Amino acid sequence: MLDDLAQPSGCGPLLPPDSAHVKSMRQQIFEHVRAAGRATRTDVIRALGISAGSATALTADLIAAGLLREVDSIPRETGRGRPAVAIEVVPQTHLVIGIKLSDAVHSAVLTDFAGNTLATASLRTPAGPKPLDVILTEVATLVHDVLDVAGKSTGDIAAVGIGMSGIVDHQAGTVPWSPLLAQRNCDFSTAFQTRFGLPLYLDNDANMLTLAELWFGAGRAKSDFAVVTIEHGVGMGLVIDNRLYRGARGMGLELGHTKVQLDGALCRCGQRGCLEAYLADYALAREAATALHHQPHERQSAHALLDALFTQAKSGNEAAQTIFRRAGRYLAVGLANVVQLFDPALIIISGERMQYDYLYADEVLSEMHRLTLNDGRAPCAVETHAWGDLVWARGATALALSAVTDQAIAAIS
Amino acid sequence: MLDDLAQPSGCGPLLPPDSAHVKSMRQQIFEHVRAAGRATRTDVIRALGISAGSATALTADLIAAGLLREVDSIPRETGRGRPAVAIEVVPQTHLVIGIKLSDAVHSAVLTDFAGNTLATASLRTPAGPKPLDVILTEVATLVHDVLDVAGKSTGDIAAVGIGMSGIVDHQAGTVPWSPLLAQRNCDFSTAFQTRFGLPLYLDNDANMLTLAELWFGAGRAKSDFAVVTIEHGVGMGLVIDNRLYRGARGMGLELGHTKVQLDGALCRCGQRGCLEAYLADYALAREAATALHHQPHERQSAHALLDALFTQAKSGNEAAQTIFRRAGRYLAVGLANVVQLFDPALIIISGERMQYDYLYADEVLSEMHRLTLNDGRAPCAVETHAWGDLVWARGATALALSAVTDQAIAAIS
DNA sequence: TAACATAGTTCAGCACCTGAATTATAATAG
DNA sequence: CTATTATAATTCAGGTGCTGAACTATGTTA
């Protein structure tokens, strides 16, 4: 076949960039007002670069739809010219519930459309994997509790967001595996929706935490950042271009199982040298027994063990100190690797373990900076957040809120 | 101050997702046709989900502007119904040159608007850092050479893309540091444009390679993938949502300087335990001297040393084999870490070093898969590419092509 | 030769945004 | 107290970009 008869192969990406996230001007206006708390039409014009005519027309639509309202009870700013009228979200139009399921304590938050927390609830549960319907019953108790506190009913709720540890398929709403569930490949979303009749948005816990930072925390003003959490394991979430990055295969971003040492310490995943095997609670606990001169038969909870270890370290026990110090060095390595691979604007470290300040000392931070190439630029910023247990559930509300917002605005025109 | 008088803090991301990459329908059509090589209007309709009316009108615009044309010399596909008319890019409308600057050999590629390579050129140069005007003179020689081969002149060129190693600020067109340049903080782009009168698009070499895979290689059909290259150093590029990810601070994605061992081997960056310190040519070379029983005074080039080492390993020298085997294991660790942190759909390994098949053996691949959590899903695909030296320069043409395309289409309406 | 199948065109119309002119509402200067 | 000025918001004609339905074009098949 001659050359000019052959089909040319072409060049360039075969797939166009995902344009699903291109939002209508109405939605951009709404989200800007919600993000600012309150904004005048002129604020909107400047922030979004639209014309004055559009601002009037589109805010009128949103006000007519009942999603926004003018604020007139507020004393207006003084100055020359016609005073600006502030616009705000009508909070009560849509309510969502965010839930964090974990090993020992579940928690739930009821949030209005403006992002205000209306009620919270938590529930102690026996640890270990359970059948799906047991988990759903626990969820039912939580939902009932938060609704009760706020004096609302299920019918008032627009959607529910749930975050849980394990392998979670956000898109499909299924849970291939979770330490909380006795069964594998669980169709969580369908089961939930048939039981509660409410839309459910499901994701893994690290993504929930990341969403919490993006919606309510230090990540709000950053377009690219990473969130690292140290709990039972070491998790990570990533925001790229102001959106949560979920990976191509829907696997979590498993910072805890990156290797920091060939043939290193044994991890609970069965491999060796995982970061988690130097940082997670079980990793510290197994060395703690040695440092505290416990006998193998003296069993106690990892939590109690770590607290004892921390007390010892603080009072000068060198063996105890080296345990924390080594963990801190490995944390620095893990963070440095994230910086080298992603070049984020900010890393947020979040988690219960915040109390063990050895892990969050300036020493760790400067070690991290030492381990990264900087070439004269400002080093990557690092923040640590000691938020309460409810962050996770709040992140889950953000997941539900964004979905409900999409629908509410699409329903206007 | 009362609570209802306080400005609410609001919630949600403060910055909207970057919408600069939202392309006009005209551009999407053009890029689809170029990506497919040839496409009928009906292909476009199906691929982009637009109406038939739009396809007619917009292709007519593009044809009128001289960017596309109908193909009539081709025998049409047989079948029922009116035969479809294929559309293709008019190749000669805009030409670009892509250039890769490196230590010993520069290379250049002249490409037409359809992505066809019209001419190539390369230039041996003395190694080591040089003043900017020396580099620009070398560039001038290259440009002259490719134009000469194709019988074109500078006036025919729409833009130039250049890739070089070092710290390159793509946005500003500056080079804070490069092993090729004697001076720091070099305003490369301005100097180039005043000398040649042509628009220049500059980026680091790893990004060029990644663009080459996105435009011409295995990455064309993937929306999220990583490219890893092993040369003097270990570089990485990342494509997220079909676009090159450049990081928040414009630093490269330095896979080579992620730490795989606390207090490990000494890296040329001055730190210890960098992946590069186990994989790069200098890392192999310094152990090669030992394995080959060379005396310290027997100096030879790293390249010759490695070739000798490879021959020895092939012929059964165990010391030589362990050098490659260890490098292979560390490569597996590095790749596994990328998989755990990014969850890409594909990793492409590319580089000259392809010849040392120890590094690309199935053994390395299976070691990598062993080092990643998979949870029953398909493991991350890995491909190795032994492309010639011109890949880099072709990637640079892609950089220039995409910019020229943006402008050409924006100029229509 | 009629019936069909597929490709492509034409055009009225809608959604969405801009830009200019206009109105609204305040502080300030004379 | 009125004119001036500054800022905010509205109104509306008009352009752009797309859709959807009716229509035309051009081949194969029965």
UniProtKB/TrEMBL annotation, chains A, B:
One of its GO terms (molecular function) is kinase activity. Keywords: Kinase, Transferase. It holds the Pfam family ROK. This is Sugar kinase of the NBD/HSP70 family, may contain an N-terminal HTH domain. It comes from Yoonia tamlensis. The lineage of its organism: Bacteria, Pseudomonadati, Pseudomonadota, Alphaproteobacteria, Rhodobacterales.
